[in-house]
Amino acid sequence: MLQINDEIIIHDWELTESFTRAQGPGGQNVNKVSTAVELRFEAARCQNLSGPVKTRLKKLAGRKWTSDGAIIFRVEDTRSQARNREIAKERLKELILQALMTPKRRIATRPTLGSQKRRLAGKVQRGVVKSLRGKVKDVE
């Protein structure tokens, strides 16, 4: 069971763990022990998450979201299988907590009169600088 916050609990049957051999350094331990963890969470079928939260979760998950609505985390950070399981669950919890936060609505604003005048004055000044780069005319 994974406790996200006071209202949301992910039950063990919603999570699937599989273990494979990790890549990278580790000596003979890499060849003998399956320490890498692949955590699969069936997010689309989860009843504790609302529709908008699932939509934000899908957007945040990116390539980790599969076509059948699951999120897959592969962790092989440490040589310990138990620690890799903890890291995978922590990453899932952080992702769900990010999806729970509703983004603030952006309120459209207009530029102030002063900022408009400064922008136009800057454009005029730049035009003057560019016009002075032309050929020098002899006045006789």
Topology:
Elements: E1 2-3, E2 9-10, E3 15-20, H1 28-32, E4 36-41, H2 51-61, E5 71-75, H3 81-100, H4 113-131
Antiparallel strand pairs: 1-2, 3-4, 4-5
Helix pairs in contact: 2-3
Mean pLDDT: 89
Widest sheet: strand ordering: 3-4-5
Question: Which structural category do the helix and sheet elements fall into?
Answer: alpha+beta
Report the sheet-strand fraction: 15-25%
Count every beta strand, where a strand is a DSSP E run of 2 or more residues.
Answer: 5
Distance between the termini: 92 Å
Based on Cα principal axes, name the global outline.
Answer: elongated
Backbone CA Rg? 28 Å
Instruction: Identify the quaternary structure here.
Output: single chain
Helix residue percentage: 25-40%
Low-confidence stretches: none
Helix and strand pattern: EEEHEHEHH
Number of helices: 4
Main beta-sheet annotation = 3 strands, antiparallel
Account of the protein in words:
The chain is α+β, with helices and mostly antiparallel strands and 140 residues long. The protein is 39% helix and 15% strand. It is built from four helices and five strands. The strands form two sheets. It has a three-stranded antiparallel beta sheet with strand order 3-4-5, with helices on one face. The protein has a two-stranded antiparallel sheet with strand order 1-2. A hairpin with a 5-residue loop joins strand 1 and strand 2.
